[in-house]
Each structure stands twice: as C-alpha cells, then as structure tokens.
Amino acid sequence: MPEELKARELRLVLGDQLNVGHPWYSQCDHQVVYVLMEVRQETDYAWHHVQKVLGFFGAMRRFAQQLREKGHRVLYLTLDDPRNTQEIPRNLRWLLEGSGAERFAYQLPDEHRLDDQLKAFAEDLDLAVEVADSAHFLTERTELARLFQGKKQYLMERFYRTMRERTGLLMDGDRPAGGRWNFDKENRGRPSKGHLAPPPLLFDHDLSGLSELVRRQGVKTMGTVDARHFPWPLDRSEALQLLDHFVDHLLPDFGRYQDALMPGQWALYHSRLSFALNLKLLDPLEVCRAVEEAWRSDPERIGIAQAEGFIRQIIGWREYMRGIYWAHMPGFAERNFFGHDRELPAWYWTGDTRMACLRDAIRGSLENAYAHHIQRLMVTGNFALLAGVHPDAVDAWYLGIYIDAIEWVEITNTRGMSQFADGGIVGTKPYVSSGAYLDRMGHHCKGCHYDVKDRIGERACPFNALYWHFHERNRSRLEGPDARPGLMTRIGRVYHTWDAMDADTREALLNKAERTLQQLNDL
Ligand code: FAD
Ligand code: SF4
Questions:
Q1: Which are the contacts of 370, defined by CB distance < 8 A and separation ≥ 6?
Q2: What is the per-residue pLDDT across 141-156, written as a single tens digit (0 to 9) for each?
Q3: Which residue, 34, 182, 226, 281, is the most exposed by fewest CB within 10 angstroms?
C-alpha cells in the first residue's frame, strides 16, 4: 500500500453506486480513501455483453477521476493491477491492512449476492463498520413488503398511487393531475408503416484501450461493440444530456408508441436511461421532475398520457420491482411455477432465425446491449414462455445481454413479469400472445418467412399453435390452488375460446405445436 494511501477510513464504492450526489462526497476528508475495483468476480458471475463490461468499467473510471478532481482520495484497482486478487473481500482485506484504517464503510448493495458477501466480510472484521444507504431509491428495501403486510397480493397500481401521493408527482393537491391515475389505455398506438422515430442520441467514447484490456485478460463476453465509438453515457453530465434529448425529442410520443414494434428501430421513443439510472448517475426523482416540468410548461406538445406513462415506469414499476426483490429473494430465483425445463433455442445467441420479430429483437440486443420493453416482454420473453424454456436459462440470457441488467431489476422482470415463474407475485396474468398481437403492434409480419394468419400449415407463425399449447398444457396449474387469486377471471376467456373449438382443430394445433417444439433450433 503506497504511503499516500494511509487512511483512517476506507469506503467501498461498487460499480452501480456512481452517485456523485451521495452525502459521502459533500465534503473532502483527507482521512478517507474511496476504493473502486474492476474484478473478475463481477465480470464472471454471468456471461455479460461486452458493452456492459465496458460501460461499467468506463463509468467507474470516469467516476474515480471526478472524485479525484473534487479533491477526494481514491484508490482504483484496474483489472490487470498485479495486486488485484479479483475478489472484492480479498482485495478489501489487504487494502484495509495496508492502509491502517480504523473504519470500513460501504453502501447498501442492491444485489443479494453482494449484500451477503459484504455482510459476511464485515462481520469478520475487527474494525468499526458503517453501512450507508445508497441515497438513490425513493423507498426503503423492505417498504413494499411492509405496505402489503397481511395481503395476498402486492398490487403495483396501489403502490404506484401511494408513490404519486408521497412524491407529489403529477398531483393537483390531493387529486391526480388530469383527473386519472393511469392513462395506459391511450398508450397503445401503432405507428404507420415507414414511420421513423427521431434517431437515438449516441455518445462517441474511445474505449479501445479498455476493450483491449478486457480481451487480453480473457473475460468471456457476448455481443459486439465498436469500442472506438462507445455509445452509452459514462458520467452524470452525459446522462443528463440523454435525459434532455428524451424530454425534447421522444417524450411527446413516448406513451403513444410505448408498446409498438418497428423493424430496425431498436430504441423507438424509449429513453435508454435505464443504464444511467441503474448505475445511479441519475436520480429517479430528478428524471420524473424533468418530465413533469416539460408537461406542465407545454401540455399541448406533451400530453399528460405521455408524462404519466413515463413516470409510472420509474416511481411505479422500478421501485415496485426493487421491493419485490427484497421481499422474495433468495427464494424468488428458484421459482418455476410451470415446471418448464427446455433449453433456450440456440438462435437466442445469434439472432439466426427466420422469425422476423425475434431476429430483429435478438440481433438488436447483440448489437446494442439493449432492447426496449416490448421486445423484451412480448417478443423474446413471450416466445421463451410459450416454448417452455427453463426460467434459469431465460434469466441467464437477460442478465447477460442487457447493459442495464442488474439482478434486482432483471430477475423480477424476467422470472416474474415475463415468465410468470413466480406464479403471479408480479404479474396479474402470464404475458403471452399469439402472432396476431405482434402483428397489431408492429410491422414485422409482412416481411417474415412465416404467415401470421396461419396456425397449422408449414409456414404458420410459430407463436400461434404454441399459444394454445401453452394454455392447454398449463391448464391445471393456472386453474389450481397455487395460482394467483382472480387469475381465471382474467384469462378465462382464452379457455372459453379453446373449449369452443372443434376437437379436430384443437388436436391439429397441439400436434403443430409439438412439431414446433421438437424443431425449436430450426425456426
Ligand atoms: P423506458 O421505456 O424509457 O422507461 C423509462 C424507465 O422506466 C427505464 O429506464 C426504467 O428505469 C424504468 N422501467 C420501465 N419499465 C420497467 C420495469 N418493468 N421494471 C423496472 N423499471 C422499469 N430493466 C432494467 O433496468 N434492467 C433489466 O435487467 C431489465 N430486464 C428486463 C427483462 C425483461 C424480461 C423485461 C420484460 C423487462 C426488463 N427490464 C429491465 C425493464 C424494462 O424493459 C427496461 O427498464 C427498459 O426497457 C429500459 O429501457 P429504457 O430506459 O429505454 O426504458
Ligand atoms: Fe413474428 Fe409470427 Fe409475425 Fe413472423 S409472423 S414476425 S414470427 S409474429
């Protein structure tokens, strides 16, 4: 440990804790050293997209530099630092010994894995330990569970109203602005063919040195990157530029086309702020306030349905998922309500399928480390659920491929919202559809090898027969005592339609689905 790093206190900053507004940094204390580290423990716990590894390390390096510029003392361990043991606790041990520190502090991690690891590490220490809040979320970890104590269901909509009242966002006194809490019904537009959303704002960082380091160290990654033109924001000022770009150019149509799918348009009207938010470069409340202010100052240009649709995602869904995570982990990661056990089709790793909607979503994900919500939920997630893929395999894919994937928000969305593997803790019903829904929301079907209107023929859209097969094979589970209360009221119509079909059609659909399931890799 170099002499200049002797300190009274070491403070650990994790890669998703890059919050310059944290109270830790309000004054410079020269007895404190901040520690950031690039470790194989973090690059290797999942198979990550290369842009995710570069994005995290790039932002951590920038953050360390900014702390130094503000006068803080920082120790930054690069991946190839010869002293780096590649594990957080082992690094901390030698750092604490070498620094002569009397205190160790860390911020509450957002992941169970790291929470357990740091708790165990701290318990073994003979030093004073401080665990600080990460000063980012609007709710405490256990608040959602407390709010719904004694209730059978954790309703997102109820939680969201509480959050509106608490933050005052989109409120006129004690009434919701515009007279309603939720404008979702207005938000189901399908852009006309050829409609072009404004181009996404891409940054242009040269991360070729970092990329070369990651490659040389043998970190196994997926996906592609042009490291000389890395497109994601790496610090707060860039994250704020992305927010401004969203408010100025995308928010006016955000809600309207929130559920749309357009070939080749990988970001559409979505903000692409999740990476910056999850690394805490931005504060969720400041993002929502910027959106509310834009609506209030120009309601003609930005309708309330657009602003409400966006704010609900952040103070509603995002906070809600965090609450679900802390209420149900670690058991949540074991849930497999349907007992699904298939492997993910091989083309999830290449995009080489003739199914146009899936090809576009997967290739886009491999190229950009990003897909928008409807691609994640209704294209890749929908297909994996209909095909009966094991939720572990689905989780691993989502955790690796997206630049914003951190377990607390990935697993709750994947296993919960998308795969219904939790039996309905998160979702009120499984998010599955036939091809007709995908055709209604976008423009992929016309250019597809498969025929969206056909259910049984050689070129029938695979979603169609699989949709019925899913419902038929899972009927006893969905109707059974372990299912979410009220589920049948929501999906009973599907079974009504199925039961009304003649026996030959039902048999033909099930046979078609069985053949499809045997050839998943060849679709
Ligand atoms: P926008 O559409 O612009 O939405 C604005 C913000 O709202 C997002 O940045 C995000 O912070 C928040 N948000 C929107 N929907 C959700 C949601 N369902 N849960 C939590 N926050 C939400 N989000 C992640 O941040 N990390 C993940 O690993 C992740 N995995 C997902 C996996 C699946 C199967 C599904 C269906 C969704 C997943 N999501 C995840 C939620 C959502 O799809 C992404 O937050 C969103 O696509 C990010 O893009 P954006 O910033 O352009 O979002
Ligand atoms: Fe997707 Fe089916 Fe449409 Fe092809 S026909 S794009 S597989 S929904």
A1: 266, 267, 272, 364, 402, 403, 404
A2: 999 888 888 887 788 9
A3: 226
Q: Which residues contact 275 (CB under 8 A, 6 or more apart)?
A: 55, 232, 233, 403, 404
pLDDT digits (tens, 9 = 90+) for 438-476: 999 999 999 999 999 999 999 999 999 999 999 999 999
Instruction: Tell how far the Cα of 341 is from the centroid of ligand 1, in angstroms.
Output: 26
Residues with beta carbon inside 6 Å of ligand 2? 355-357, 435, 438-439, 444-445, 448, 450, 452, 461, 463
Structural domain spans, the chain = 3-132, 143-215+235-328, 346-522
CA of 286 to the centre of ligand 1 (A): 17
Looking at domain 346-522, its CATH superfamily turns out to be DNA Cyclobutane Dipyrimidine Photolyase, subunit A, domain 3 (1.10.579.10)
- In angstroms, the CA 503 to CA 434 distance is 20
Ligand 1: centre distance to CA 270 (Å): 10
Three-state SS at 383: helix
3-class secondary-structure state, position 128:
strand
In the chain, what's the furthest Cα-to-Cα distance? 82
Residue nearest to atom 3 of ligand 2 (CA): 445
Indicate the top mutation candidate among 359, 445, 459 to test ligand 2's pocket, ranked by most ligand atoms within 8 A of CB.
445
Q: What is the helix, strand, coil percentage profile of the chain, to 5?
A: 50, 5, 40
* Residue 39 predicted with pLDDT over 90: yes
Q: Which atom of ligand 2 is nearest to the CA of 464?
A: 2
117-122 long-range contacts, CB within 8 A, separation 24+: 117/88, 117/89, 118/12, 118/88, 118/89, 120/89, 121/88, 121/89, 121/92
Ligand 2: which of 190, 353, 354, 355 to mutate, most ligand atoms within 8 Å of CB?
Answer: 355
The Cα 1–Cα 38 span in angstroms is 17
- Of all ligands present, the nearest one to the C-alpha of 421 is 1
Rounded distance between C-alpha atoms, residue 270 and residue 249, angstroms = 10
- Give the DSSP letter of residue 445: G
User: Which CATH number among 1.25.40.80, 3.90.110.10, 3.30.2270.10, 1.20.120.610 corresponds to the domain 143-215+235-328?
Assistant: 1.25.40.80
Each residue's pLDDT tens digit, 289-312: 999 999 999 999 999 999 999 999
C-alpha distance from residue 217 to each of 38, 57, 82, 366, 432 (Å): 12, 14, 12, 22, 41
> Which residue shows structure tokens 């041990």?
93
Q: How far apart are CA 385 and CA 432, in angstroms?
A: 7
**Ligand 2 atom closest to Cα of residue 379:** 1
